[in-house]
Amino acid sequence: MVKSKKVADASLLYSLKKCPYCHNMLKLDANRCDGCKNRVGAINKAGFAQKLINWKAYTVSALAWGAFFVYIWWAFFKE
Ligand SMILES: [Zn+2]
């Protein structure tokens, strides 16, 4: 059994990276997908661009869900 060498840098393996949202092929230095316009990060070991976490959107979404559940509780369960 021959152990395969560890690849230090995935970018050496690939000349293109895949968009994690729509699987469009992108240049390695692209930071936005041409197809779906989502922001993407550096390539990972699987050849996909990394998703960038949008903390602002997460926070707004969490607050919206929180308000929704409070409303449901207030509308239906409050006595
Ligand atoms: Zn895309």
Q: Would you write up a description of this structure?
A:
This protein has 79 residues and is an alpha+beta fold. The protein has one domain. It contains 1 helix and 4 strands, in the order E-E-E-E-H. It has a two-stranded antiparallel ribbon. A hairpin with a 6-residue loop joins strand 1 (16-18) and strand 2 (25-27). The chain is elongated and about 70 Å long. The chain starts with 15 loop residues before the first strand and ends with a helix. The mean pLDDT is 88. Bound molecules: zinc ion (ZN).
How are the SSEs placed, and which strands pair?
Elements: E1 16-18, E2 25-27, E3 40-43, E4 49-51, H1 55-77
Antiparallel strand pairs: 1-2, 3-4
Zinc ion (ZN) binds at residues 19, 21-22, 24, 33, 35-36, 38.
Give descriptors for this structure.
alpha+beta; two-stranded antiparallel ribbon; elongated; about 80 residues
What characterizes the major β-sheet? 2 strands, antiparallel
If you average the pLDDT, what whole number results? 88
**Strand order in the sheet with the most strands:** 1-2
Estimate percent helicity: 25-40%
Percent of residues in beta strands: 15-25%
Gap between N and C termini, in Å?
Answer: 70 Å
Secondary-structure element order, as H and E? EEEEH
Number of helices: 1
- Assign an overall shape: elongated
Low-confidence stretches: none
Radius of gyration using CA atoms only = 20 Å
Number of domains: 1
The unique ligands bound to this protein are:
zinc ion
Structural class: alpha+beta
Counted beta strands = 4
